[in-house]
Amino acid sequence: MNANKIYPWYFSSGAIVLYLLFIVAPALLGIYYSFTDWNSYSSEKNFIGLEHFRTILAGDPTYLLFIKNTVLFTLVTSIAKTVLGLFLALLLVSGVKAANVHRMIIFSPQVLSFLIVGLVFKSLLDPNNGFVNVTLRSMGLDVLTQNWLGSLTWAMPSIMAVDTWKGMGYIMVLFIAGLLAIPRDYYEAASIDGAGFGQKLFRITIPMLMPTITIATVLNITYGLRVFDAVYVLTNGGPGNATDVINTAVYSSFAKGYWGLGSALSTILFVIMAIISFFIIRLMNRKVEY
Amino acid sequence: MRLRKRLASIGLNALAWLLSLVVLIPFVVIVLNSFKSDAEAKVLKLTLPEKFIFENYKIVYEQGHLGGSFFNSLLHSGASSLLLVFVVAFSAFTLSRNYSRLSKFLYFFLILGITLPLNYIPLMEVMKSMSMINSHLGMILLYTAMGIPISLFITYAFVSNIPKELDEAAIMDGCNGIKLFLRIIVPLLTSVLVTVFVLNFLSVWNEFTAPLYMLNTVEMWPMTLAVYNFFGQFSAQWNLVSADIVLTSLPVLIVFLIGQKYIVGGLTSGAVKG
A114-124 and A155-180 helices cross at what angle (nearest 10)? Predict the structure, then answer.
């Protein structure tokens, strides 16, 4: 049987053409633009070598802050979503009533746009009349009220909390699926041997969940490094530059007309993601061909 | 012992409800607020409105460009998801069946896009050169391209699980490649293609970054941009902003409730196998 005749490669040409035009061409063009002084103030694009990269990595310290914020955001939200997701999953498979209802409620923010979630929390976290501060005040806990999105100390943690609130349901669903796949006999055998909750958790559940934990981590990291909507809607990078991440910095350099510089920032993100992707694709490959 | 077990069960149920409430309360506050008067909504509280004011929704609909942007969102989400299902079905079929080096390479090349960030500044240049900025066709094709990597990944694994003996039998009976695909494979792929459609529909509906870069006329805006702009104008009137948020989330929540099985199935596939 001649496979080329029955499964001609050009069946995939539609996907390939669209992918090349809208994803690959801009990526390559972007790398080229990173080495030019392309901006909205002149019509020429002059080749300037590594100057933008020097500005970003060694020149202006604010750019390093954006990279640091991106990494911090990724680390904190990844850990928080994984831990909370696992906790919620364990709770919901432990035989609580109406587990499906809980699962649906906790998962639901995931299907909403971050724009909607962002606006909801923008109102809830308003320093004067927002739900959080109003509730704290009505309980007499005035000391705990904060300017959540407007203060240097609290803006970043607030964004991370909102993002975790939105994303933990997805990770929970992954863990529920993973937990249900663990054969029950393991736990029965362990119970007969007299193992307690903690022993079962650390000796059976977590080791058996390792593939799910890996995928959840990968998803969290790739999402975290690319974050844009969450920061843009909640603080737009403020106060000052305190909560700017790489992608909001790309957007503001685009808006200011510094297109070459914006492309260079994108390229740095691209390189980080490409290295991580290499490992992810290998992981996925192992998954498909079992 | 039995008492302890019952207490533990009550405790766990209470905890589950507490956590669900943490997720629900923000939405409840917004929904209640959307029915309040301007003055009453000034302070966001978890109280019932003195009088339910449905007028808010009418104002929001008229001033928020919601009719037009609803249509735009529907067009972008629906058309790109349909096109995506079409191109992904074809490519998953041929790439997963054909064991050549080229098809293997093409598969990895295409799913690489799952993780790589989109570079919007040069993308604008590319789309400009094809006169696709501020155009529905441009947005639809862009969203289709953005959906290809993850959809292909999900569908590819699914096709691999269809036994190849089916193909052989069909070919013995005189099917060629395209007939085999349309008559045998596509019917078996229906459920995964529905998943791809629903997942893409939602992600395009929620998309905010691409329109922010690519669309600069109000007539072209999807609901996300319309809401963001509405918030910019009416940020002091929380009853209106809340009504706007409710109206915009409704379509998504309806799709979620209908397509729940497919959404959760699609998001977990690949994560728990192996």
Answer: 130
